């Protein structure tokens, strides 16, 4: 009977990790639906970028208040989750505060005190985030695309984080009182829990048995809460907790203003400009089994794998939309919504595969069914959204690929655009005059 807790703990741990692996495997499969792209160049620069942006939070400082609060939550959870190592060991082997015997009383006291203080800072930051989102109503956090599940998801995450911190404090407070009463061996220091929570327990003169129940309940709540949180990420915007690291590693290293050209178009231009090219040379025999290359993208299958990783990584913070000139001038375009819609379509395709074993055409596409043409045409390609993103997501690349499909595959563009493109093709300028007259202005 004494091993039932340990067995139950092991079962929960294995089940939680197994479900998490299943979710990650499914996300990986969905990302692999995109086109392969080689982003393994300049590995040293990529590692530096990842450590600077993902680990170092270097871009969060652009908005000091939110950046500082996020740093508290980020660093706090990294430090507090070191406690999970002890929880895992205690849960499997039935020990109590195992690390005290490894660290020694002095070092362990500093360790637990640091955890207690960081838990308080995380709690304060979580409360501030909740107030900013629900009471102050920060504009970028309450835009149209955030209505419904996105807002509920953000609040639910904050509530879960707050509950985990309360469980952590309750566990430590009950433990500290039991240590003072000699029920448990004295290990650790809890400056926050013993001064803020423990007095509340003592006011009601809780018995040793009830305090032990509180300590055990909070311990299990914290453990199971972490497993729940870990698996909830599958449905949440908080996947960036994990994916920010690969996303920044695979980020575009070229200057932000450098748009990628279609290789097929580039080859055609080079052929046209090559004075040694034979215009009458026979074209190479095409592969009869090859799928004709599509210009741009109209669904997630046409996007590359880094773009799909971007969609899963998006934090929905709205920094991109808040600096988008199109959005600021009343246009429908929201770079955040572009990323959210891409992920929604990707998850829709994933559910299709889960149900049928393979993708069965559902008659839907990313263009029109999720993202409107009006949104895509509103983009000025200024790269403000790319610059603003704290984890190097590139909404512009998706917008450009979708817009390329509209123009190059469907010839779908406003009349003014078609006129401009015709003039560029014929006159090497957006205006309708002869190329020979291009420098006439210099004579004025």
TrEMBL record:
Domain 4Fe-4S ferredoxin-type intervals: 305-336, 369-401
Molecular function per GO: 4 iron, 4 sulfur cluster binding; metal ion binding; oxidoreductase activity
Pfam families reported in the protein's UniProt record: Fer4_9
TM ranges: 6-24, 68-89, 109-132, 153-174, 217-235
Entry's Gene Ontology cellular component terms: plasma membrane
Gene3D superfamilies documented for this protein: Alpha-helical ferredoxin, Transmembrane di-heme cytochromes, Chain C
Coiled-coil stretches noted in the UniProt entry, renumbered to this chain: none
This protein's UniProt keywords: 4Fe-4S, Iron, Iron-sulfur, Membrane, Metal-binding, Oxidoreductase, Transmembrane, Transmembrane helix
Keyword Oxidoreductase: yes
Keyword Ribosomal protein: no
Source superkingdom: Bacteria
Official protein name in the record: (Fe-S)-binding protein
Organism: Cruoricaptor ignavus
Lineage, top ranks: Bacteria, Pseudomonadati, Bacteroidota, Flavobacteriia, Flavobacteriales
């Amino acid at each position: 009977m004494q091993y039932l807790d340990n067995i139950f703990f092991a079962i929960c741990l294995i089940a939680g990790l197994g479900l998490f692996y299943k979710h990650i495997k499914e996300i990986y499969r969905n990302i692999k639906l995109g086109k392969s792209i080689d982003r393994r160049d300049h590995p040293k620069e990529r590692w530096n970028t990842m450590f600077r942006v993902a680990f170092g939070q270097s871009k969060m400082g652009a908005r000091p208040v939110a950046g500082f609060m996020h740093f508290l939550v980020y660093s706090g959870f990294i430090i507090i989750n070191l406690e999970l190592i002890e929880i895992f060991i205690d849960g499997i082997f039935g020990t109590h505060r195992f690390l005290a015997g490894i660290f020694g009383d002095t070092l362990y006291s500093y360790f637990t005190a640091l955890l207690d203080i960081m838990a308080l800072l995380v709690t304060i930051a979580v409360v501030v985030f909740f107030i900013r989102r629900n009471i102050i109503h920060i504009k970028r956090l309450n835009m149209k695309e955030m209505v419904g599940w996105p807002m509920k998801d953000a609040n639910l995450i904050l509530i879960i984080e707050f509950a985990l911190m309360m469980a952590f404090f309750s566990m430590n407070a009950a433990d500290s009182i039991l240590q003072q009463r000699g029920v448990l061996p004295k290990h650790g220091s809890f400056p926050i829990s013993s001064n803020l929570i423990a007095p509340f327990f003592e006011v009601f003169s809780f018995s040793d048995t009830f305090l032990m129940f509180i300590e055990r309940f909070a311990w299990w709540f914290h453990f199971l809460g972490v497993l729940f949180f870990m698996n909830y990420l599958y449905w949440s915007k908080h996947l960036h907790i994990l994916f920010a690291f690969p996303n920044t590693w695979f980020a575009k290293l070229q200057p932000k203003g450098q748009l990628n050209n279609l290789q097929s178009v580039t080859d055609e231009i080079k052929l046209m400009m090559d004075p040694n090219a034979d215009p009458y040379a026979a074209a190479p025999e095409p592969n009869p089994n090859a799928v004709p290359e599509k210009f741009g993208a109209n669904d997630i299958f046409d996007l590359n794998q880094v773009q799909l990783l971007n969609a899963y990584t998006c934090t929905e913070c709205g920094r991109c939309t808040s600096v988008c000139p199109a959005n600021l001038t009343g246009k429908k375009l929201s770079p955040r919504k572009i990323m959210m819609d891409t992920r929604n379509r990707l998850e829709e395709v994933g559910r299709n595969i889960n149900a049928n074993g393979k993708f069965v055409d559902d008659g839907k596409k990313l263009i029109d069914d999720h993202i409107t043409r009006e949104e895509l045409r509103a983009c000025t390609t200024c790269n403000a959204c790319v610059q603003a993103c704290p984890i190097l997501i590139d909404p512009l690349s998706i917008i450009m690929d979708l817009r390329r499909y509209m123009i190059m595959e469907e010839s779908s563009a406003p009349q003014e655009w078609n006129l401009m493109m015709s003039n560029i093709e014929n006159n090497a300028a957006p205006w309708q005059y002869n190329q020979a007259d291009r420098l006439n202005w210099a004579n004025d």
